[in-house]
Amino acid sequence: MAKHYDKEFKLNALQYRKDHPELNVAAVCRNLGITAASYYKWAKEFETTNTIEVRGSGNYSSDLEKENARLKRELQSKEDALRILKKAIGMS
User: Fold this and answer.
1) In this model, does residue 59 exceed pLDDT 80?
2) Which of 47, 55, 57, 59 is most buried, taking the most CB atoms under 10 A from its CB?
3) How far apart are alpha carbons 71 and 67 in whole angstroms?
4) 30 pLDDT higher than 90
5) Averaged pLDDT for residues 4-13
6) How many CA atoms lie within 13 A of 45 on its CB side?
7) How many angstroms separate the CA atoms of 36 and 53, rounded?
8) Which residue, among 2, 78, 86, 87, has the nearest Cα to 38 in the 3D structure?
9) C-alpha dihedral sign at 25, 28, 34, 38
10) Distance CA 72, CA 40 (A)
11) CA separation for the pair 23, 30 (Å, rounded)
12) Domain locations in the chain?
């Protein structure tokens, strides 16, 4: 399963490399626990667009949005369980 990193982490990783010119990319990646391929992908994207896009369901712009998404998933799970129980006792 691939890890998802938020925009701040990606930008910080690029800045870390700039702040530590004595380290090569492999050392930076080892220190941050990322792959060199990820680092180079982020660097290329930042170089061409001057920003980094963040994709995926695990990235939220705020803690409130993250909590809202968690609560929606929890509600959906409970509704699914209730629907199954109703079918099991013939209440459909």
Assistant:
1) no
2) 59
3) 6
4) yes
5) 88
6) 14
7) 18
8) 2
9) negative
10) 35
11) 10
12) 1-57, 60-92
